[in-house]
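Course assignment 3, question 2. Fill in each field.
Student: A.L.
Task: Predict the tertiary structure for the chain below.
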Amino acid sequence: MTATKGIAQNNNILTQGSFEHYEEGRFVGWYFPNTTYFKKIDNPEEQRTPQSTKCVMVYPRERAHFETTETTPVLVAGNRKYEVGIWVRGKKAGCELTLSCMLYKQNKFVGTIDNFCTVKCTTKWEQTIGELTIPADADRCIIRVRISKGSDDFIYIDDMSMVMKNTAPTVPKLSSSDIDITRYQRELDVEWKADNYPKNTQWQVSLNGKPYLTTLDNKCTIKGLKLATVYEVGISAKIGETVTDEVKKKAVTGNLQVTQEASWRVPFLRTIGEDGTCKRTIDLFYTDLADIQADIRYWLDGMEYTPKEDKLTFSSAGEHTLEIIIKEPNGQEWELYYKVNVTEK
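Answer field:
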C-alpha cells in the first residue's frame, strides 16, 4: 500500500467509482447492505474537488461494508497487476478501512484477495492506493470496502479507481519438474503443469533446440523419433506478447525389445490393447518396428484404408477387423490381423 498524488482516471475500470450517479435511493453500480448507514452528499463545501458534485458519507460502524454490484461486474485480465485507489476524509481521525476483492470466472466464484489495502482516515482528503494481482483463472471481480476500525463520527469517500499497471502480465515460472515425459520407441508423450496459466496460453514446444509445435493444450506427442536416442524437449509459455524462458528436459527413446534380425520380432500397434479394445480413432504408433521407412498397408473391415496424419478411425463403436501388412526395407515382412472392440462412440 502506498499513498500517491493520484492515478489516471481515463483507464479507470471502476466506472461508477466517482459516486456521481444516484438513482432511487442508491448509488448506481454499488451495493450498500441495510446494516451499513450511508448518505448522498452534494454540498459543495464537503466535496473533494469543485468538479465533484457528489460523494458518499458512511457511518463507520465496525464491520460495516459496501461493494460493487454483481449486476455491473468489474472486468479484469488474469495475470495482471492493478492499482485500486480510494479518497477518504473523516470528521475525526482514527477510522480504518480495508479493501478486498472477490474473484469470478464469468458467474463462478473462484476466490478472494482479502485486505489487500488498509486505509487510515485523517481529517483531510487523502488518497490511498492498494495493489493486487488478478490470478489467471479470473475475468471479473467485486471490490469491497469494509470498516475495520470504527469511529463515532462520519467519514466521506469519493473517487475510487482501479487501473491496470503499465506492465507486462505476470507469468508464472515453469520448472523441469513440472514436465512429465513418457518414453516409447518412436514417440515421446510430453505433459506439463498449466494450473497457474490462463486458458489462452500458447505453449511453444521445441525438440533439440528447434521449434516443434505451438499448442493451446498442455500436452503433446513428439513422433517419428529414432530408437534409443537422447532428445531434449523445451517448453515455453506465451501470454499475449510475453514469452517465458524455455524450460528443458532430456529423455531417451526406447530400443527394440529384441534384435532387428531376430526371427521372432513382430512389430505391433501399441494403441490397441492386448484384449483388442481401443478408441474409435487410434494413433498408428508401433512397438518393435525397426525401420520407420517401412511400407505399411491397412485393410479395415476388408476394405483397403489410407490413414491420415498417422491416425486410423473406425466407422463406429463395436467389433471391427483390421489387417496390416508391413514390409521393412531389409526384406522382413509381417501380416498382422486384429479383431478389435471399439469402446468409444
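Instructor remarks: The CA atoms of residues 31 and 158 lie 15 Å apart. The radius of gyration is 32 Å.
Grade: pending
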